Amino acid sequence: xxxxxxxDIDIRHDDAPPRRWSLPQAKFRLLxxxxxxxxxxFAISLRLIDLTLLRGGDDNAQRxxxxxxxxxxxxxxxxxxxxxxxxxxxxxxxxYADATLIIDAPQVAKDLAAILDDSTAAALEKKLTSGRKFxxxxxxxxxxxxxxxNSLGHPGISFEHQYRRIYPHxxxxxHLLGYTxxxxxxxxxxxxxxxxxxxxxxxxxxxxxDLRIQHILHRELEKAKTTFQxxxxxxxxxxxxxxxxxxxxxxxxxxxxxxxxxxxxxKFNRVSLGVFEMGSTFKLFPTAAALDGGAASFAxxxxxxxxxxxxxxxxxxxxxxxxxxSLPEVFIHSSNIxxxxxxxxxxxxxxxxxxxxxxxxxxxxxDLPERGLPLYPQPWREVSTITASFGHGxxxxxxxxxxxxxxxVNGGILIKPQLKLDSDTPLGRLQGERVVSLxxxxxxxxxxxxxxxSGTGSKAYVEGxxxxxxxxxxxxxxxxxxxxxxxxxxxxxxxxxxxxxxVVLAIIDEPKPTKDTYGYATGGWTAAPVVASLxxxxxxxxQIPPDLSNTHDIRVEMAPYLKDEKLARKGSxxxxxxxx
Length: 580
Prior knowledge:
This protein is of the alpha+beta class. The protein folds into two domains: 75-207, Alpha-Beta Complex (Penicillin-binding protein 2a (Domain 2)), CATH 3.90.1310.10; 214-254 and 272-568, Beta-lactamase, CATH 3.40.710.10. It contains 22 helices and 18 strands. It has helices at 6-14, 22-54, 56-62, 65-69, 105-113, 121-128, 143-152, 174-177, 189-193, 195-200, 211-227, 264-267, 284-293, 327-332, 336-344, 350-357, 382-389, 398-409, 438-454, 523-526, 528-541, 554-558; strands at 78-79, 85-97, 135-141, 157-166, 205-206, 232-239, 245-251, 276-277, 301-303, 308-310, 313-315, 324-326, 395-396, 413-415, 432-434, 468-478, 481-495, 502-509. Strands 1, 2, 3, 4 and 5 form a five-stranded mixed sheet that branches. A five-stranded antiparallel sheet has the order 7-6-18-17-16, sandwiched between helices. A hairpin with a 2-residue loop joins strand 10 (308-310) and strand 11 (313-315). Helix 5 (105-113) crosses helix 6, helix 13 packs parallel to helix 15 (336-344) and helix 15 (336-344) packs across helix 17 (382-389). The N and C termini lie far apart (153 Å).
């Protein structure tokens, strides 16, 4: 029996099928890999849920829009008519913390409190121990503060840079410009009116305002408010030819960098939003209506010897002459009786229709979101005509009053007030609705000039500038009717009267009499000097040369219509500003 060679055994070994344990091993390894991926996926998902839904939701809500939406659009600047900066945006740092990375919260809080002006160590420590991934510590810090905090080297403290709105002139232009929120959205004033232009397209807005005149008006109103211990003061300057608002001030005011710290009274824009009964300044309008409608002329004689009886009330004059007055005398003596009779001569609806034509029954069309809605009698009765003729029963904003007065002196055109400087509008070209004739406008200018030359507005006189104007003093409405101890004293002035260009309005709210005013706190004593001081400073700035020739004297021209010889000289007993 022969034996097999060894190679036969080897050949059969090599040709044997592969071992079966290799396939289960491959499946096991694949399962391990898949399991690892699934575990990683679930771990990441759980972490995202923890950050976004459990702990991170509030933190993300506190992050500025720039953190989510990317870089902010640089908001456009606001400039005055001369190109001087009124509002801009600066890149500033805000400091925040990841509280989970803070090692020694009490010490970190103490270090930060020594640098930050708006936080205490206790308040900071509370934030640093909150366990939150994101918490603001302070917004809009200075570069010096940022450097100091960064130098501390504390882990978990970081900075985010955003644009903050800056108002170089602070309170001076607060009510005009308004302010923005922390995300740069316009909340009030010009910032809100042109929010889309400045915020989305980055357009610069150039205003009609002149910062130089704004400074003067603000200073003079603040001085009057302090002198007469008034609760508020308001004023504006407007170009009667173009409607451009040169200056507008509302006191009290506020810091637009910290609007949240201001009271409602401080943020209230009295120029365009507040509506008030304006008193005797309103006598301009029934006088113009009577002259324009042919119901009266300068030669018209009006009996002002007796009060007008209206039910159980009597309409009287504050300092009545108790005689028959010509129309110019009614105006310069500010006679309630005479003005009411002129208004009644217009017919049942005459004065109401004229007031409606002047825009007294709707908001002023101006580029400000803060616009007051006038108040007026509804229904309008005969007694409404009487009281509204001397400024009672109709409440309008100071801007309403200035706009209507401008129409009476610019040749008779009611124009739209302008705040945005429009290079496409030809300067000096009046665009608007005619409300009185050129002839009536000329007569109103003469009456206004006479009030300053010999009437209740003598303290608005400025040598060489032929100022005209009308005083007003209105009792404010209280819980039990009109309060004689709370008055709104005003003066609306126009200059230069030979070619009217600017209307200047000053209103002092609840002024108190002083020794220097001999116990008076009326418009002629409190508001007229404000207008005079502004004109005296504005004239040279605007290169309006004073006329010192003394060839024109309105008192001589109007003498045929004046019976009182005292009116022939300035500074008479009637020129005390004791209007009402």
